[in-house]
Amino acid sequence: MSWLSDTLTSTIGRKLVMSLTGLFLIIFLVVHLAGNFQLLADDGGVAFNEYAKFMTSNPIIKTASYGLYAFILLHIVMSIALARKNRAARPVGYDKVKGSANSSFSSRNMGILGFIILVFLVIHMRSFWFEMKFGTMPVDEFGNKDLYLIVKEAFSQWWYVALYVVCMIGLAFHLSHGFSSAFQTLGINHKKYTPFIKKLGIVYAILIPAAFASIPLIMFFNS
User: Fold this and answer.
1) Which helix (H) or strand (E) holds 199?
2) Residue burial 43-59, b: 16+ Cβ < 10 Å; e: rest
3) Which of 33, 60, 170, 200 is least crowded, fewest Cβ atoms below 10 Å from its Cβ?
4) What residues form the membrane-spanning segments (predicted)?
5) How many CA atoms lie within 13 A of 69 on its CB side?
6) On the CB side of 85, how many CA atoms lie within 13 Å of its CA?
7) Inter-residue contact 189 to 19 (CB < 8 Å)
């Protein structure tokens, strides 16, 4: 297993792991967004509760979820390790003017943006996932845990909606750099298709977080 140890301790290996886990999470966001859109169905939450039940009871989905949690943790651990190694190798730091000219806001602040997302994940998981798994929840007319009611209550509070939107803005900036950076780390870098990947990354970084943010906004103003 020395190859695994070498991979997880080398800069290149850590970047590779971050890229692969990042791309997996990018795909997951699309799937998660499709599920969240069930919140907007005009059925009193029936579709969303059915979706939530399926996601928490299907053996295949549950197994995939454990993989997702592992990938999130691995992505965080690798990012912290890389940040610490980079800081140790560059104790003085780059000139701010030069750094601003040669890099984007997102690339310079990936650590801060990642921390914002982490805080959001902790709050989000505590509010919904934890309640779904371990909380005492009401049930809907079909006997399913009424997670929709919990979400509706959360999205009726302006501060939670504001926090959600701010964190989605942070996610947008994080994705705007991370999307194309992941492909570049994997060696997918060519003058013919790299510009397309960068443009696709920008479109993705705008549309997906905006779509996520639209759900609590719609529910708040319709409550």
Assistant:
1) helix 194-222
2) eebbbbbbbbbebeeee
3) 60
4) 20-40, 60-83, 110-129, 158-179, 200-221
5) 8
6) 13
7) no
33-43 per-position pLDDT tens digit? 999 999 999 99
CB 188 within 8 A of CB 197: yes
Residue with tokens 């798994």: 133
Distance CA 134, CA 216 (A): 24
Domain span including residue 137: 2-222
Domains held by the chain: number: 1
**Which are the contacts of 171, defined by CB distance < 8 A and separation ≥ 6?**
113, 117, 120, 209, 212
Q: Tell me, letter by letter, the H, E, C secondary structure of 138-176.
A: CECCCCCECHHHHHHHHCCCHHHHHHHHHHHHHHHHHHH
Q: What is the DSSP annotation of 44-71? A: TTHHHHHHHHHHHH-HHHHHHHHHHHHH
CATH number at residue 32: 1.20.1300
User: Is 156 in contact with 218 (CB distance < 8 Å)?
Assistant: no
Measure the CA–CA gap between 222 and 2, rounded to whole angstroms: 56
Helix (H) or strand (E) holding 23: helix 11-36
Neighbours of 10 (CB within 10 A): 12
Query: What are 102-119's pLDDT values in tens digits?
Result: 577 877 778 788 888 889
